[in-house]
Amino acid sequence: MPPASHFLPVRAGIGLRGRHYEPVLKTLPPLGWVEVHSENFFGGGAALHTLLKVREHYPVSLHGVGMGLASPGPLDGEHLSALKRLCDRVQPDAVSEHLCWNATGDAVINDLLPFPYTRASLAHVAMRVERVQEQLGRRLLIENLSSYLSFARSEMSEGEFLAELAKRTGCGILFDVNNLYVNSRNLGVDPESFVRALPGDAVMEYHLAGHSVRDGCLVDTHSERVCDDVWGLYGMALQQIGNRPTLIEWDNDIPDLSVLLDEAGIAQSRMDRRHDCMA
To answer: CB of 234 within 8 A of CB of 189?
Structure first.
C-alpha cells in the first residue's frame, strides 16, 4: 500500500487556470483547495513561482493529463521524472491521472483515449500505476474517463476495472461525476451500477464540470455550469459514498472567478446538508 498522502480538506475547490491566478492571490477567496494541471508547471519559471505563492494559502492538487497509463509502450521516464520534481517542489496534497492511453510507438496523441477493460489491460495498467506510485512515493488517484465509444472485447465495466485496480495497487479513485453522466447519455452506462461498483473507501475526490452538446452527442468540454442532472448524480454519490473533496473544473470559455466560486458554493452547500442530515 502506497503512503496515504491525500490530505485534501473535505471541502469544495476549483481548478485554477491562468486567468484566475491574479484575482485569487489578490482576494484570497474562501476556497477549500485548488487543482492545477501538472504539465503546465514542468518548465518551472513564472508559472511555478505563482503556484508556490498559491500553495502558501491553499492546499494544492496536481492533476495530470499526459501520463497515458494504459498506453502500450514503456512509461515516459522524462515525464515521470518531471512530475516527481514538481511534487518535490510543491508538496501537493493529492496527485491524480486519467484512466486512458495517449501514445503508441513514436506517436503521442493529445487526447485521453479509452481502451477495452480486460484482465490483460488491468494487469498492464496496474503495473504502471505501481511504478508511478513507487517513484513518486505517494498514492496516485485515477480518474474515470469520458468516452465516445465502447469496446465489445471489454470483460468488465469501468467501475469494476477501477475497483480492481485500487485493490491491486492501493491507488485511490477520482470520481468524475460529469464523465459518468456523459457516458450514461452517450454509451448507455448505468450510473447506479457504476457507483455501486466503486469501493467507497478508495474514492478520494469528486470532479464536477459542465459539458456541451454536438449533434446529439455530449462532449466533456468543461465549458458550462454543472447541469441539474449532474448535480443529481453528485447527490447520489454523496449518499452512497459520502462527502469527499469536490472540484469544479472549467477549462474552456472560462468565466469570471465569481462564477466558479458560485459553483463551488453550491457543491459545498450540498456537502454541508448531507453532513447536517448525518449529525
So the answer is: no
| Beta bridge partner(s), residue 37 | 63
Q: pLDDT-derived band of residue 158, with 50, 70 and 90 as boundaries?
A: very high
Task: Determine the pLDDT at residue 278.
Answer: 72
Q: Which residue has the cell 513518486?
A: 136
Phi, psi of 103 (to 5 degrees): -150, 150
Spell out the CATH class of 12-278.
alpha beta
